[in-house]
Structure formats: C-alpha cells, structure tokens
Amino acid sequence: MQNIRVLVVDDHDIVRRGIIDILSSRNDVSHCTEVPTGTEALELLANEDVDLMILDISLPDMSGLEVLGQINALDESKCKVIIISMYSDRQYVKRAMDLGALGYVIKQTATEELSKAIEHVLKGRRYLSNKLYESVYLKTADGEAPSHLSLSPREFDVMILLAKGVKPMQVAEEMEISKQTVNTYRTRILEKLGLYNNVDITKYCLRQDLISND
What we know:
The chain is an alpha/beta fold. The protein is 50% helix and 14% strand. It has helices at 13-24, 38-47, 64-73, 90-98, 110-122, 130-138, 153-163, 168-175, 179-193, 198-207; strands at 4-9, 29-35, 52-55, 80-85, 103-106, 127-128.
C-alpha cells in the first residue's frame, strides 16, 4: 500500500514527534497529521480520508477507547487503528482489540515495534507484541495454558474470525489467502482444540474470553 495517510493522536508533543520520526523513515507514508485530542481526531476523520490512525488511550478530553467506539459507528470509515499506550494491562488491550483496533504497541517498545505493527495492520492483520499476546490470550485463571496455545499465529487469526461468524471466503479475502488455505487452517484448529464445527469454535472462544458476546 502506497501513499498512506496517517493521523497521530497523542497529547504529548514529544511522543508525537517520536512517532512521526519513525513514520518519516517509511517511503509509503505520503501525509502525516498530528492532533492532541480525541475530539480533533474525530473531526478530522469526518472530513478527511485517513488510512491509519496511531492512537493513545489516555487523552485529555476522552479515552482513546471512546474514540475507537465512535470510529466503529462510522460505517464508511476504512481507517485502521494502532493503539500506542503506556498501559499493558489485559483489560485495556482486550477492550481495544474488541473495539476494532488491529494493533497494540506499548510506548516503551514503540521504537522497535511500531514499524512492524504498521506492516501487519496495513495488510489487515492484528499485531500484538509477544508479551501482550501472552498476557491477553494465553494465561488462564489457574495458570494452565489453554488449548489454543498450540495454534500458530495464522491459525489463531482464522479461529477468531470464524468464531465471529465470518464466512470462509471473507476470511480468505481479509487475510489475503485462498479459501482452500482457510479450510486447511480450520481443519487444524478443530483437530488441535478437539472441536467438531464452527459453533464449537465460537463457544470455545467465548469461554476463553477471546471474543465478546455483544
């Protein structure tokens, strides 16, 4: 994807400058705008086309999670969102991903991870650092690793989409793979988790709190 239009939303000037420095090293970013508040971000998004938003959770006027929720209400918005935050708590990460963020990067590791996150997100793929992935999706209350630990990252992504009721052809289009490959991943998922069909996949993901029941 070329000529990417990016919006950086953070109330700290030094953080915005650091993010823009990272973006400036990419030859696919054609335009970069920065704002310090959620209100300004939503106003700009309503009037301009934005391909990628890099959004902090802690903003002076509203939560970045609230901004995410309002973006979801804009059916015509094709803006992809990466959360960049100091918060690594499971509740924040999980909620952000449930609200539609495709990536979540901790500010302390942004220098190393942000470009990688952008690569994933622009292709419609989720990005979490290994540390966040483990804290959000792999730990259980009793400390035992759940069955989906055995899945590869791609199998995990397919599982989540199927659990949400996305049709195999749509999964294939979203992940830029063939429908046959989706079916292969689905077969592996069922075998590894000891399940029988897509309904079982949905129930499993709900039990593990991998998807919301909204």
